[in-house]
Amino acid sequence: MIKGITSVAAIASDEGFDRLNSLFRALGFEEGKGWNDSSGRGAAFLAPVGNLELITGRAPAVPGLLVEVTQLDAVYAAVQGWLAAQSAENVSAAKLTEVAPTHWNSRLFTVDLAAGLQLGFWESENPLHNRPIAVEGDLSAAGKKFAIVVARWNAVITDRLLQGSLDALHRSGCAKDDVEIVRVPGAWEIPSAARTLAESKRFAGVITLGVLLRGETAHYEAIYTEVARGIGQSQQETGIPHGFGVLTCETLEQALDRAGLKAGNKGFEAAIAVIEMASIQGKLAGKN
Ligand code: DLZ
Asked: What residues form the catalytic site here (predicted)?
């Protein structure tokens, strides 16, 4: 029944509120629904894991506002970058500590954003902290290149799938220049283009997008089987994750539903799966 934890932080000054907003946006926090009325302003930021910690008997040794992260040094560099981009006046007001070990088997740094507004970032050194005992991929696409192969056939749908994939990649931190889009005539051509891209080893993952409509496609089963086999074979033989976003539908209406209308966007889902698999591949290879 418990869904999440909402911790409300009162920020004393407008200046601190604006800086915190700017920093959280720069770090890629997912934004929730904020508000702005005559009584004040609210800004909501969402994180995958919430942790409400109650303390009694001694004062907390850390700021009340703490963000747990997975790559502390990268976050440190991002905060430094954000500070450097602020006006000289703000930079001098902000104090950034070094990353330092804590007595609770973690590493932490803090930044003072305004008078009385200190923010902390920390990472547990315990690999099992807050995690199931399993290797899991992160949904971070930053610094990685991805290719998207999209069929022109049924473009009214495949364009929506493409938008879904791009949305997933960019929201996960992938830079625009790190995405290569290849348009092919139809689903039949997807496997060979996907394979060429995967064999180039330039990409962390390849996302394949197309739509086969049973009613309008001669030899539908045969084509579908071959497309799925070709994409799967390219993935297995190159070791590069391939996202499968080729819809097989009875009708155009059904395809529209799966391209963002009523049943999610399969282009988004295929891209998220590839981002996760690219991270898992890196972890299994000991790279991250
Ligand atoms: C020919 C064809 C047909 C009938 N239907 C579809 C379809 O529903 N979805 C799709 O992506 N492509 C279709 N195509 C085109 C083939 O995939 C291929 O591009 C052409 O046969 C040329 O090789």
From this structure: 219
Task: List the chain domain ranges.
Answer: 14-124, 146-284
Q: Does domain 14-124 have CATH number 1.10.3720.10?
A: no
Is 129 assigned a catalytic role? Answer: no
> Confidence class of residue 93 from pLDDT cuts 50, 70 and 90?
low
The sheet with strand 205-213 has its strands ordered as 179-184, 146-151, 205-213, 242-249
Rg (CA), the chain: 23
Q: pLDDT tens across 225-276, in order? A: 999 999 999 999 999 999 999 999 888 888 888 888 777 899 999 999 999 9
The DSSP result for 9-61, as a single string, is ---S-HHHHHHHHHHHHHTTPEE---EEETTEEE--EE-S--------SS--S
Ligand 1 atom at minimum distance from 213 CA: 8
- Extract the tokens encoding 1: 């029944």
* Shortest-distance Cα residue to atom 13 of ligand 1: 186
146-284: CATH class:
alpha beta
217 lines ligand 1 (CB under 6 A): yes
223 has a pLDDT exceeding 60: yes
Q: Which of 160, 115, 127 is nearest to 16 (CA)?
A: 115
Region for 207 from its dihedrals, namely left if φ exceeds 0, alpha if ψ lies in -120 to 50, beta otherwise: beta
